[in-house]
Every structure is written in C-alpha cells, then in structure tokens.
Amino acid sequence: MSGALGVEDAGDGIARLSWSAEPAAAPLGGADEAQALQDRLTRTAETLLSGAVFRRLELTVRADDPWGRRAVLRSGFRQEGVRRRALLGPDGVAVDAVLFARLTEDPVGGAVGFSAVMNSALPRKRLIAHVLYRDADGRVLLCQTRFKTDWELPGGIVEPFEAPRLGAAREVREELGVDLPIGPLLAVDWMPPYLGWDDALELIFDGGLVTEADLAGFTLQPSEIAAVRLVTLAEAADHLTPLARRRLELITTLPAGRTVLLEDGSLPA
Fold first, then answer.
1. What is the value of pTM for the model shown?
2. How many whole angstroms separate alpha carbon 87 and alpha carbon 92?
3. Which of 11, 65, 93, 261 has the highest CB neighbour number within 10 Å of its CB?
C-alpha cells in the first residue's frame, strides 16, 4: 500500500480513497510505513472534508493487513464491515476486504473520537437473555420453536443499547404475550460457536413460579413459538441441545441466591 494516495469522486458527496493503482497491494511492512500512511490519510481527510464537496470518505483495506487497518483507524476512519473474499491480491489469491469510512461530522481525536473509532473495530459478542420459569413440582417451562428442532427457555437476543434484564422481559412479552416477573440472575454462560453462530454470552434469569393455568393464558408469537410446555428434564432430554441440558441440570439445583459462571454449560475446571 505504498505510492500515491488516490481520490475518486464516487458522486453524491462520497469520495473513495486508495493508495496506488494496485487495489489489493501487499500488506504494510511495519510501524514506520503505517505511521507515514496515517499522516497522509489524516491530512487528505481533513482537506477533503473541510470543503463543501464531500461528506463521506471510504476506503478498503485487506483484512490480513494489520498495520494498514491500524493506520486507517488512527486517522479517524471507522470500520463499517467486511466484504468476504472481495479482493484479489498480486498473487491472485482472494482475501477479505474491510470497509472503513469517515464522515464530516465524525469526532476525531480526544476521548470521544478515540472511543468511537475503537468501538467500530473491537470485537462484539452476541448477548442472549433467557428466563427460567418453574412450577411447584420443579418442572421447567420450555418453548417449542418453529425455526429449529431443539426446545429452549423463553427469551432471546438482547438488542443494542438494551439492558439484559429488560431484553429478557421484552422477549418474554413478545413470545408469550404476557408480562411475567424477571428475577435474580442465575447464570452467565459462555457458548462456543454453533450452527453458523459465533460464540456468545447467555444470561439466565430466575422468573419464579408458573402454573398450567398461566400457560393457558399465554398468547404465543405465531411466527416463532409452536407451543409451550412444563416438563421435567428427563421428558425434555431428547429436545434439548447437550449444552442446554447440562446447563439446566446444573442451575435447577442451585441453592437460593446463588449465581454461577459457566463455560459451555458447565462449571469451569
């Protein structure tokens, strides 16, 4: 990524930047080259965004170019996504391309600017919140879903900027059509990659007691929930993933007031 810094007017106030005529040039070689690129990018971006022509600058960097990505981030560009195998390198091998952009209104420098840039590039884990409801006999409330074969507790993925407990309450409301209590946290479980999903953190909250009469009053979300059942773990065994069964067997025997940290449904060794 050496050579002149090119600017292409893409129209609609957008400029695309590149480092040379070779769009997938070899990765940068180290800190000195990255610093030089950062300085050029910073100057160019300030010039282009200070006028009235461009409101957005964007550029693409090879995913296997850590120094190039570092230079782009440090010049105030935010990471927006990855285009899989979108670049052909000089050796003819296709590599992933990382898209970066900087807007006129983006803060650059200082605590706010630095945090916003790093927030765009640092890893983010999916967060899931489920609720454990039981009846007086210790049976567990499970949902039979329409989109997969295994059963699971009420709940789902927590939305951005949503508190996990509130996310659990929202999911229960959407899936079961009622407002049920969300009690103390029972478990935090790290889940490894599964069925195309990346790894995730799952929080299990205690919802307290429900009855068969409560179930009769539910209004199930028709597109997702086929049925809800109060079952023993033995009855549900064939419908649970091995991870879910391990986790439920453990947390249903917890003493009152106990919260556990799990990894893959088990206590860490």
1. 0.84
2. 9
3. 65
